[in-house]
Write a structure and sequence with these properties.
Blueprint (H helix, E strand, L loop, with lengths): L25 H6 L3 E7 L3 E8 L14 H6 L1 E12 L2 E7 L3 H9 L19 E14 L2 E13 L3 E2 L6 E2 L2 E15 L2 E12 L17 E15 L2 E14 L5 E18 L7 E26 L4 E10 L7 E11 L2 E11 L10 E9 L3
Antiparallel strand pairs: 1-2, 2-3, 3-4, 4-5, 5-6, 6-9, 7-8, 9-10, 10-11, 11-12, 12-13, 13-14, 14-15, 14-16, 16-17, 17-18
Length: 369
């Protein structure tokens, strides 16, 4: 309850203090920077990592790096998978999500796109410093995978009174999951269930301390299927649905959010050459379909008793826009190197109905030496 100098109650529009999450520049993030992907191993042990070489050429052997070279060759992400028994695998990920690690252990096959991501890569908010571990056990024809990860949820930038620039706030997040996969001839399927705990955010949204910052709990259900119609033609689909429950505290008394994401793609091998591939994907990033947060706020003030009247208010968090991404991507060998080309179209980027549609093309070519 806000009172002025004459003890008069007045309304305050908190909506003016909202800061929206900036629309992610998917194309710039995908093609910017100079990185090197290195991988080695076999059926029993595999190691892969990405090196940031923007400040100079990064040598492969860490034992030969000088101090300056070590600073230039910063490891951005890494994964290690090992077969510890004929029917058991384990994997570790550094700055990598559990979803990617689980898919790697399952041997899942996905087309490579520059802009359009898969539902399993999206929690609905930006994250950082995610480290994961996964264990897969074969049970007859089924594969059972247990995974866990920890990282940080990165909220929209906010401006503080003692700062001259916008700053992003980070809150801890943890996740555990269980996935079951099996192949039926030319069809491969997977079903997963995971629980995400955010310590101070609600799907990445950060509330003021006066409202309460008790975080949220989310349950995600994932399903995917792939069908190899022919050795050179494959159809794939993936879907994710989430149920988020903000934890009560101070003005926040509860609420619920229903979210979903999907992707459908088709991939053709050997289009222009024997080993190239052309793929088309239609995808929707994770979007809140319905729901919001319930707040216990003052709605009236009695000057006779000098007491406010409180009531439950529902704050809707459903966006008006719906982002849909269509991308046509090609990958193959060209002029002795690896080449990729992509054309994409994004409707309502970031699920903002007022943001112009995003479209573009990208061409990449690289050669190791």
């Amino acid at each position: 309850m806000i009172l002025d100098g004459y003890s008069r109650a007045y309304a305050l529009d908190f909506a003016r203090q909202l800061h929206a999450t900036p629309v992610a520049p998917r194309l710039a993030n995908a093609v910017a920077g100079r990185t090197r992907n290195l991988a080695a191993g076999g059926d029993a042990l595999a190691l892969a990592f990405t090196i940031d070489a923007r400040n100079g050429f990064a040598l492969v052997s860490p034992l030969r790096l000088s101090t300056g070279e070590a600073e230039q060759a910063r490891v951005l992400a890494a994964s290690l998978t090992a077969r510890i028994a004929p029917d058991r695998q384990i994997g570790f990920g550094f700055r990598q999500s559990a979803d990617g690690l689980v898919a790697q252990l399952q041997g899942a096959r996905f087309p490579a796109f520059i802009v359009a991501g898969a539902p399993g890569e999206d929690l609905g908010f930006a994250t950082a410093d995610r480290n994961a571990v996964a264990l897969r056990q074969m049970l007859g024809g089924f594969g059972l995978t247990l995974s866990a990860e920890a990282g940080e949820a990165v909220s929209a930038p906010v401006r503080f009174a003692d700062a001259l620039r916008l700053q992003r706030q980070r809150e801890r997040m943890q996740r555990v999951g269980l996935a079951l996969d099996r192949s039926f001839g030319a069809v491969d399927t997977a079903l997963g269930l995971s629980w995400v705990r955010e310590d101070g955010t609600v799907l990445g949204a950060r509330f003021h301390d006066a409202f309460g910052r008790n975080g949220a709990d989310s349950v995600f259900v994932d399903a995917r299927a792939g069908w190899s119609l022919r050795p050179d033609l494959r159809l794939g689909a993936a879907w994710r649905v989430g149920y988020t429950m903000p934890r009560a505290g101070r003005a926040i008394v509860g609420g619920r959010l229903l979210s979903s994401a999907f992707a459908v793609d088709v991939e053709k091998l050997g289009v222009f050459a024997a080993d190239d591939r052309l793929a088309l994907r239609l995808a929707q990033p994770l979007r809140v379909e319905s729901g919001g947060v319930r707040l216990n706020l003052p709605v009236d003030y009695d000057y006779a008793t000098l007491t406010p009247t409180f009531a439950l208010t529902r704050y809707d968090l459903t966006p008006r826009g719906r982002e849909l991404i269509a991308e046509l991507a090609w990958r193959g060998e060209l002029w002795g190197g690896d080449a990729a080309a992509s054309a994409f179209y994004r409707k309502d980027p970031g699920h903002y109905a007022s943001v112009p549609d995003d479209k573009g093309v990208a061409v990449k070519w690289s050669k190791g030496f």
